[in-house]
Amino acid sequence: MKIGVFDSGVGGLTVFKYLEEVLPSYDYVYLGDNLRAPYGGRDDQTIYEFTRQAVDYLFKKENCQLIILACNTASASALRRLQQEYLPTLNDPHKRILGIIIPIAEAVPRLSKRGKIALIGTKATVKAESYDEEIAKAWGAVRPTEKMYLYKEAAPLFVPLVEEGLLKNRATKFLARQYLRPLKKHRPDTLLLACTHYPLLADLLAGIMGKSCRTILPGPIVAESLAEYLQRHTEIDELLSKGGSRRFLCTAPPQAFNNLSSRFLGYGVAAEQVLVG
Q1: Of 64, 195, 213, 250, which one is the catalytic site residue?
Q2: Cys-Cys link to 103, which of 21, 136, 140, 225 (CB 3.0-4.6 A)?
Q3: Looking at 64, 71, 213, 250, which residue is catalytic?
Q4: Is-catalytic flag, 195?
Q5: Nearest Cα to 131, choosing from 146, 147, 149, 114?
Q6: How confident is the model at residue 39 (pLDDT cuts 50, 70, 90)?
Q7: Domains plus CATH for the chain?
């Protein structure tokens, strides 16, 4: 049984990169729904339906036992409902769907010095308020006597710019300054990149925020969290195959996905197109 990794497109590869680095022996299937991407501007019901169709495909067609939603938008808008409504229909108590928001939120109390956190993400992620709830919960559990402030801004145009490879383009730099300006005025000590495309802009964003603000990358946190999860849940780990295989799937013709993969992974892949939904 394999580990499935799902994203609305190619951004989740920035998470997958660290999963295979930390847990290289496992068999993985990555599915990017690039035909219907981006998800960030869609309503919650549509995000849920698209994500449900994707995880259903991974469970039933690709023999996955555990699926990581390597997508902030899907994690924020669909994860809880999938766990509560969809998973019980499979009649398998060992099937799991995990998101990336909770592990990132749980890392914030140890990474933020002054409790002033800035967050940028898609419109759907910012609107969902999942990060607000989970960071507040994690902060209260670890540092209950200290105040925490979360400042958020949507940065929807970063995704197409990253996919076009315009990482150092003048327009990208201009937009980055515009998006971060309202956050900088609060003098945050931590910048949370709540979209898996944004790590490719990490150096640019960190430069704008300044040395006093630490940038949090989601990939390493999610990978370490999964490793700890599998250590705690040996009943799940024992069901996972460990042949080191990698399979990449997408829902649109794969040429663009394959071309972009090297930008996200550091190496190229040969993805296959599949029909989902």
Answers
A1: 195
A2: 225
A3: 71
A4: yes
A5: 149
A6: confident
A7: 2-100+220-273 (3.40.50.1860), 102-218 (3.40.50.1860)
